[in-house]
Structure formats: structure tokens, C-alpha cells
Design goal:
Elements (H helix, E strand, L loop, with lengths): L11 H16 L10 H8 L3 H13 L3 E4 L5 E4 L4 H12 L6 H18 L6 H15 L5 H20 L4 H21 L7 H20 L2 H37 L6 H5 L3
Antiparallel strand pairs: 1-2
Helix pairs in contact: 1-3, 2-3, 5-8, 5-10, 6-7, 6-9, 7-8, 9-10
Length: 268
């Protein structure tokens, strides 16, 4: 009979850090507030200084506090950015063989919800920022570096919308999916070869969306974003297929076992 793996027992420092997080939420503490000092925490949890410091280090790594030394120092609450959480989730999914279809299966739904949620909430500054983003895209020239920059700018357009979203969970999920696409662009070099049709479609949808946002037309915003996501998925699938074909040709004609030092390990 196969042995059932037992669940790892949490360390005391992990239990303390979890309890501190619950306390922070219960007390409604905000950025800049201080946690009790080390001595108080040692007395409260009846534990050694090393355990308290390990618990605080966990919170620091998670981005919840900043540890300062010297007079007036201690553990100070810090509002974490989304980057550490996004990076950990992307690391978790790294070995799951994700492709553009998996990302767009969610993105087709969530980007429409996001776009509708910001109708009437975008300031003139927000709208100008979106327009500036489109203009920057159109200033990109043919060539690998500019094509890569253009793909990133196109994703940033959607991040600008996410920053105006009133639903923090929806905003996080959309920005996380944009990060996933950014990773795919880098790993698969999805900015090569140049696809002018894709570029023009993105520019057109983005400009029409800005116009619809200005008019606060929810139905038009929803329709445009739905069409935009479907078109982007089709183009992403075509890019991945083209890159896969090129990879096979390159490996067949040019592979000499030296493409990567890690790959050479398989031939030792």
C-alpha cells in the first residue's frame, strides 16, 4: 500500500506570522503603523528572540512589513505591491505548460468585466494616459527591439484600465494575466516575426475603446473589448504556431547541442 504523504507541520514562526496577519486585519491597521517590539512579541508568544525574528522576516519577505534598525526602528506596516504575489503565482504555474489559449480562456471574460467596471470612472488624466500609450505604440518601428516594446505597451494599456478598477480582486487577476502574457512574449519571443495586422487591430480597438470610455457607453465598451480579446487570442495562437514551426526548422537544421549550457547536460 502506498504511503500517504503527511502534511508538513507548520513551524512556530509561521504560526506567529499568520497570527500577526490576522491581528493586523482585525485591528484595521494601515501602512505606517508599527507592530509591537521584539520583546513584547516574545512575551506575548512565549518564545525565543530567534523565533520572533524569523516570523518578522516571513512578513518582510511577503512584503507586509519593513524592518528598520536603530532608534525609532522596528516592524512598520507596508502595503505590498502586486509584483511579489504575481511572481509567486507565475512561478507556481511555470511548469504547467501554459500557452496563450489558457490565458485567454480567462482573459476573454475578465477583461470585458474590467472594462465595463471602469466606465464613468476614468478621469481626464486616465484617458490622456491611455491615448499617450496608443501614440507610443504607433511610434514603434519595425525591428525586434521595438516590436518587443510595442507588445509590452499594448499590455500596459490594459494595466492602466486595471488601476482604475473598483474591484481589487478583478484588477489583480487582469494584471496577473497581463504578466503571464508578458512572460510568454519574452519566453516564446512572440514579438517575432512582425505582424502588422495584429498591430493595426490593437491600435484600432484601443482607440475605439478610449472613444467609448469618453462617451460612457457600457454596451459599446463591452462589445469592443470582447471583439478585441477574441482577435488578440487568434493572433496569439497564430504567433505561437508560427514560432513552433520555426523552432522545429531551426532545431533540425542548426542544432549542434550548444544552444544552452544546460542542454549540453543531457548529452554528457
Amino acid at each position: 500500500m502506498a504511503k500517504i504523504p503527511s502534511k508538513r507541520r507548520q513551524k512556530l514562526a509561521e504560526l506567529i506570522s499568520d497570527d500577526i496577519k490576522r491581528w493586523i486585519a482585525t485591528e484595521g491597521m494601515t501602512e505606517g503603523d508599527r507592530l509591537p517590539n521584539e520583546k513584547s512579541l516574545m512575551e506575548l508568544y512565549d518564545c525565543a528572540k530567534g523565533t520572533v525574528r524569523e516570523a518578522l522576516k516571513i512578513l518582510e519577505v511577503e512584503g507586509l512589513i519593513t524592518l528598520k534598525t536603530g532608534p525609532g526602528g522596528g516592524a512598520i506596516l507596508h502595503t505590498p505591491s502586486m509584483e511579489p504575489a504575481s511572481r509567486m503565482l507565475r512561478n507556481f504555474l511555470h511548469f504547467r505548460s501554459l500557452d496563450g489559449h489558457h490565458v485567454y480562456q480567462l482573459r476573454r471574460l475578465l477583461e470585458v468585466e474590467l472594462a465595463v467596471s471602469v466606465v464613468g470612472r476614468l478621469s481626464e488624466q486616465d484617458l490622456e494616459g491611455l491615448t499617450a500609450n496608443i501614440d507610443a505604440c504607433q511610434c514603434c518601428h519595425p525591428g525586434e527591439e521595438d516590436q518587443r516594446r510595442q507588445r509590452f505597451l499594448e499590455l500596459e494599456f490594459h494595466n492602466l484600465l486595471a488601476r482604475a478598477c473598483p474591484n481589487p480582486l478583478l484588477a489583480f487577476m487582469c494584471r496577473f494575466l497581463n504578466d503571464m502574457l508578458r512572460d510568454l512574449v519574452v519566453v516564446k519571443k512572440a514579438y517575432i516575426p512582425e505582424r502588422q495586422q495584429f498591430d493595426k487591430a490593437n491600435h484600432r480597438y484601443h482607440r475605439e475603446l478610449v472613444k467609448a470610455f469618453r462617451e460612457e457607453d457600457r454596451e459599446l465598451v463591452a462589445r469592443l473589448m470582447d471583439e478585441h480579446m477574441r482577435d488578440a487570442e487568434d493572433n496569439m495562437s497564430a504567433l505561437e504556431a508560427e514560432m513552433a514551426d520555426q523552432m522545429l526548422v531551426t532545431q533540425h537544421n542548426h542544432y549542434d547541442g550548444t544552444a544552452s549550457p544546460l542542454r549540453r547536460l543531457n548529452h554528457l
